[in-house]
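Friendly challenge for the regulars: who can give me the C-alpha cells for this chain first? No prize, just bragging rights.
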Amino acid sequence: RNVKNRPRANTMLNSVLSVGQEINGKNKFKEYEFFILNKEYENYDDVIKSNGFKKVSDTSFTLSNSDYSLTQIRKKSRIIILFSKINLNYETVKANESLTLLDTLQINSLDENNFVTIGYCELDGLIPEQIISLVKKCKKEYLDVIIKSWKVNEKTMKIEKINDASKIKCINEHFEYSE
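First reply, four minutes later:
Bragging rights claimed.
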C-alpha cells in the first residue's frame, strides 16, 4: 500500500498503528497489520493463533500505580513484543481484565544463537520488567553480549531503544546451576 495514495494515512498513523507498520524510506508499510494500537482486547490469544504466532512469554509490572504487560510472540525468526496496559474491572461479580495495546516492537531475523529476554536485565533507574534485550546465547550465569536493548518509557508509554547498552547487566534465564 502506498501512503501517498491515502490522504488520511498520516493522521491515522498517530491513532491507529498496527504491529510492524514501520515506515521505510519509500513510505510503504511492512507486514503484520493485525493489532491496532489503543484498542482494548479481552486477550490476544485468538489474534496470535489466527496469524500463526505463538506466545513465548508474558511479564506484568506496575508503573505509576497502573499495571502493564510485555508479551512476546514469535513466528519463525520474527518476534513481536506487545506493550499493554492491564485494565481491571471489578464491577462484575467475578473481576475480569482486558488489555489496551500501547506500543509494539518487531524484531526480525532472529537466528538460533540469539534470544530475546524480558525482565532479566538491570539498568539504573529502571525495573527489570521494563527492559527488553536481544542477547547472544551463552552457558554463563550472566550474558556477555547484549546486541540491542529497549525500555518502556514511563512518561511516553512507548518502547524506546536504549542507545548505550554497555551499562546493562543481564542474567541468563537459561543458565543451569550445578549442585
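Confidence is low (pLDDT under 50) at residues 1-31. The longest helix spans residues 9-15. Your move, everyone else.
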